# Entry
Amino acid sequence: MRSYVDFHCHLDLFEDFETKVKTTESAQIYTLAVTTTPRAWPRNHELTAKLRYVRPALGLHPQIITKDTKHELKLWDEYLNNARYVGEVGLDASANYIQNFDMQKDIFKHILTRCSERGDKVLSVHAVRSVDTVLDMIERYLPQDRGVVVLHWFTGTKAQAKRALKLGCFFSVNYAMLRSKRGQEIISLVSDDRILTETDAPFLDDQSTQSEQLKQTVEILGTLLNMTPDLVSEIVLKNFKRVLSADK
Ligand SMILES: [Zn+2]
# Structure
């Protein structure tokens, strides 16, 4: 049986969150359950504590950041002691969120700095219309030997992708990204040892199951990389294990 990796999934945004965690675990899909607010951490942590496949990530999503989010950062700091994985974090400069961009930067700087101080954290990073700034900040505040960054649903340019590779970043890709010409171009220049898969569920608004979506992603990657889907999923699993062991 093929093993799938879903390195960015919002299990707690599903109505039947608990069931979703259970079915993901029994489907044996290695899943990073990202959160959008540290308030969601205790429940995610509790539900996944004894699981092998589902792991929780401590997030503070750039789209929820407003002047009222300051106290959430305090919570985030508190929970970081128990979190190996961090996400969803990052920056979003799209029209609806640009007005809080300076605040987002302050918070992202804080998060990267804390991760760097602690060391050995693995981050799932959102970078919408802000790839240069995100990469500048990673370069400045989270040196490669202090943590691993996985760029989720990358929408930047080829030049930005090259820079991200130099900074040691990985890429988690979903099939929607791989259907776009830009996404395909990115795959053509990212070496296959930096690729992970994801669903970003429930944001793709897709009724098919997590494993069906991952199967589709692995098949498209196979076509793009000229490999069998089985080989792609083996490589993705190997990359996932490398990310976890921080042995880049
Ligand atoms: Zn997400």
